[in-house]
Amino acid sequence: MNRTRTIFYDCDTGIDDAMTLLYLASRIRAGAVDLAGVGTVHGNVDPLTGALNTLRVLELAGIQEGVPVAVGAARPVAQDVHYAADWHGTDGLGDTHLPEPAGRPVAEPAAALLVRLARAMPGELTVLATGPLTNLGAALLLDPELPSLVREVVVMGGAFDHPGNITTHAEANIWHDPEAADLVFAADWPVLLVPLDATHPTAVHGDWLDRLAAHDTAAARFAVRVLSFYVDAYTPVLRNRGAVIHDALAAMLMLEPELGEYAQRAVRVELRGKLTRGTTVWDARSLPAADTRRPVRVAVGGDVPAFHERLLSALTSL
Ligand code: BDR
Ligand code: CA
């Protein structure tokens, strides 16, 4: 059996997206991942900034060529665009304002690249999405056959028995484009959803950050530098020096599902609530659920020490 997963990574790079790119780069080196393409979307920053950040990180990791990076949707379907400068800096990389990358994004829009790659390798492509789901929603509208062409969709987003992180109830990636997210959960494809309930318990803290800082490689120095902004933003929330590297958990559960615990839920996105727009909901009654929507595999917990060790090992192996 071919143990290499072929991935399309859709992101809004973004500090934890950047850590995820480094994690994926380590898995590429190990032969576990073939990164077929990257799409960027509005979210933490605008999608061109996210694409340039993606190129910066890939180049830092020694992945200079062969991975098309495509700019995607610059705004959500049905609301205004918002960025996350307080969490990721105005440049998305903790206000480090790094030099321009050598490479440039490709001309093709992200949704078109995703559809083209999925059609070229039916049943092989896994889509990892760690930003708002506008590009995936657009790709579903572009090609109604897409669900039958994709092996799996892995999404970081949502919150069930956990407070929201952008409104009282909603998680940022879903809240940034609730209509697109609901299209993704409505489609007939296998979805693994990694919500705040699973990511928050994996927060890294002082000892982990100190161990990372003890490594003097270019990738580790970069990670320490950009994470310092993120840690400053997270420390008041966690009441402890630390940060939640949400997106990397989704990538790790995609490659090593045995590290997670899961529940099957037919997930919907609240689109109209004044206080709850952008919240992920499911029918939790013990009656046979009336919802006929295809259930999503939702991560509800996992092996936190393994996540910490494997992420640290990836970030320091480049
Ligand atoms: C998600 O929101 C973004 O700020 C992060 O990059 C992550 O994808 C967490 O809610
Ligand atoms: Ca993200």
Ligand kinds: beta-D-ribofuranose, calcium ion
Mean pLDDT: 97
* N to C succession of SSEs: EHEHEHHEHHEHHEHEHHEHEEEEH
Overall strand count:
12
- Termini separation comes to 27 Å
Output the radius of gyration: 18 Å
Tell me the overall shape: globular
Total helical segments: 13
In the predicted model, the low-confidence regions spanning at least 5 consecutive residues are none
- Order of strands across the main sheet: 3-2-1-4-5-6-12-9
- Assign the structural class, choosing from mainly alpha, mainly beta, alpha/beta, alpha+beta, or little secondary structure: alpha/beta
Largest sheet: 8 strands, mixed
What proportion of the residues form beta strands (DSSP E)? 15-25%
The helical percent reads: 25-40%
Keywords for this entry:
318 residues; alpha/beta; eight-stranded mixed β-sheet; two-stranded antiparallel ribbon; globular; binds beta-D-ribofuranose; binds calcium ion
Structure description:
The model has no long low-confidence stretch (mean pLDDT 97). This protein has helices at 15-29, 47-60, 85-88, 110-120, 134-142, 146-149, 172-175, 178-186, 196-199, 206-213, 218-238, 246-255, 304-315; strands at residues 5-11, 33-40, 69-71, 125-129, 150-156, 191-194, 204-205, 242-243, 260-265, 268-269, 280-281, 296-302. It has 318 residues and is of the alpha/beta class. Helices cover 39% and strands 17% of the residues. The strands form three sheets. An eight-stranded mixed β-sheet has the order 3-2-1-4-5-6-12-9, with helices on both faces. It has a two-stranded antiparallel sheet with strand order 7-8. A two-stranded antiparallel sheet has the order 10-11. Helix 1 packs across helix 11 (218-238), helix 4 (110-120) crosses helix 5 (134-142) and helix 5 crosses helix 8. It is built from 13 helices and twelve strands. The protein starts with a strand and ends with a helix. It is globular and about 55 Å long.
